[in-house]
Amino acid sequence: MHPSYHHGDLRRAVIDEALRIISSSGPEQLSLRAIAAAIGVSHTAPRHHFGSRDGLLTAIATEGFDGLADALIATREGGGTFLDVGVSYVGYGTSHPAHFAVMFAPDLLLEDPELARASGRAFGELRSGVEALGADGRVEDAHAAVVAGWSLVHGLTTLALTGNLERANLTGGRPAPELLDLVRRAAGMLYGSPG
To answer: For position 119, which CATH number holds?
Structure first.
């Protein structure tokens, strides 16, 4: 038996193994039976916590959105600007690629109130940043501003995770801190630098 399962944390062991598989093969390759075999439990054990493969993916997406929301909130509460929140979005997505791959794949997920709550927290942070800019008179069309800001940071995260920024020689093979500097410069063109 898997040590985590032996200590009563089968749910976490299943999620961790699923994240490992998603990181290496993508969410489409996920199998509850393979996860059970990898962690040394019966093939029905993961169903006890998740019901199905889609239930497991929904739990991973929920965890991902909660983690993203926590990162964005910590940035804002730490005095960060809307630009800083955008950089945090990319930082979270690139440091949690398996979560990110599932969070924005609605065809793989169940309709779930916990998922709706978690994604609502994350999107609420993006919206509140735009509202703050609107209060300063920097944004006239809040709806378009949310779409523009989210598209920019989500697109940059996706380009980084898929290796497209590197293949286009736009990162110069630089490490993650340099990527976040690139994000800050690109997002600053949209809403201006915090200074």
So the answer is: 1.10.357.10
**Which pLDDT tens digit goes with each residue over 136-176?**
667 778 778 888 888 999 999 999 999 888 888 776 555 56
Please tell me the distance from the alpha carbon of residue 180 to that of residue 132, in angstroms, as a whole number. 22
**Whole-angstrom distance, CA of residue 135 vs CA of residue 53:** 44
φ and ψ at 56, to 5 degrees? -65, -45
Residues 144 and 57 grouped into a single domain: yes
Residue 183 Cα to chain centre, angstroms: 16
Dihedral, CA of residue 151, residue 153, residue 156 and residue 158, to nearest 10 = -80
- pLDDT (0 to 100) of residue 195: 39
Integer angstrom CA distances of residue 5 from 58, 99, 133: 21, 22, 48
Which tokens sit at 83?
Answer: 């630009």
Residue given tokens 């997920």 in the structure block: 109
Q: How far apart are CA 130 and CA 136, in angstroms?
A: 10
Q: Write out the residue range of the structural domain in which residue 39 sits.
A: 1-51
